[in-house]
Amino acid sequence: MAAESRRKSGKVAAKATAKRAKAKPAQRVKAQPKSLARKAAQPKLLAGGNPQIAKGEGDAPVQAYIAAMPGWKRDLGRRLDALIVGAVPAVHKAVKWNSPFYGVEGEGWFLSLHCFTRYVKVAFFRGASLRPVPPGTSKQQDVRYLDIHEDDEFDAAQFTRWVKQASRLPGERL
Prior knowledge:
Radius of gyration: 26 Å
Number of domains: 1
Strand content: 15-25%
Oligomer: single chain
Number of helices: 5
Shape: globular
CATH topology: Aspartate Aminotransferase, domain 1
Strand order of the largest sheet: 1-2-3-4-5-6
Helix content: 25-40%
C-alpha cells in the first residue's frame, strides 16, 4: 500500500512538473535578486571614475550623473549644478559623451563637467573670452578649464561670475 501511495504521489508530482514546463514564459519569470537589481540601477564608472550615463536632454540625466559621481565629487557636482542654476535660472541641461553640458536653449553649450580620478574638470567653451581667464589652457584656442581637486579652496563667487559671463557668449553647437 505504501509503495502504491508513493507511485501515485510521484505521478502527481510528475504531472505538476509537466504542467509548469508547458506554462508560458511570462508565467515562469523569476524575480531578480535584490543585489542584481541594485547593480543594474548603479551606473558603471568609466576610467577615472567618470559615470557612464545614457545620453539625454534635461535635468534628469544630469542629476543621474551627479548622483553617480564617486565620493567627494558628488557633493561638488551638486554644488556646481546649484551655482550654475542660480546664475542662469533658465539653463538648458543634457548629458552627452558621459558628461553634463549646460547651455542656453537655441544658443548652444557654454560649459561641461567631467570626472577624473583626482579632480573634476569644468570646461568653459568660450573661456578665453572670460575675465579673468580660467587657469587651465586647452589645445583649442577658445576653451579654458577649471580643475577642482578635493582639497582645493573653491571660489564660488568667481565661478558664478564665469558662469554668468559664459552664458552670454555664443555657445558651442555640438
